[in-house]
Each structure stands twice: as structure tokens, then as C-alpha cells.
Amino acid sequence: xxxxxxxxxxxxxxxxxxxxxxxxxxxxxxxxxxxxxxxxxxxxxxxxxxxxxxxxxxxxxxxxxxxxxxxxxxxxxxxxxxxxxxxxxxxxxxxxxxxxxxx
Length: 103
Prior knowledge:
Layout: E1 2-3, H1 4-7, E2 10-15, E3 20-26, H2 30-39, H3 44-51, E4 58-64, E5 69-75, H4 95-98, E6 101-102
Antiparallel strand pairs: 1-6, 2-3, 3-5, 4-5
InterPro entries: DUF4387
């Protein structure tokens, strides 16, 4: 078993406009990408549990085989820069993904 942060070359989050956050998980080898993809651990249920979301708040969860990457886009609770926003750029929101264990 390995944590996702140990397997991914890039694991980041950022704004996807003022109302959405996007997460990029990129790999530097097809074997590692396929290992993560085939594990089934990156799925709607996992994202909902990690971020306390409903399925309707997940806009995209896509595996890009050609790019050896996974993109997840979720709706923000409040818009970027609004009073109460804790991360204007969305750059600190990927941490819950880091410790997903992959077989």
C-alpha cells in the first residue's frame, strides 16, 4: 500500500473560476497511473466523504488516460474572495486527497 501523495508526481488544487475548485492528480508513469485508476479508490463516494459533499456538488471526476492524470472539479461552499473564504486561490484544498491509500 502507498499513499496517493507518494505515487503522484503532481497533486494540487486551484480555483476553476470563483465558484469551483479543481484538483489535478498527475503521474509520471503509465503503470502508476493505471495502478491508481484500477484501485477504484478515486471515486465519487471517496470525494464526498473527504470533502463533506453531496454527489451533486461534484462537477467532474475524469480520468485522462492520454495525460496520465485525474481531474476532479467540485463546487465551492462560498465564492472565492467572499467574506469567510479561507483559501482565495483554492491552493490548499488538496490535502485530504494526499493520504488516500492505494493497493
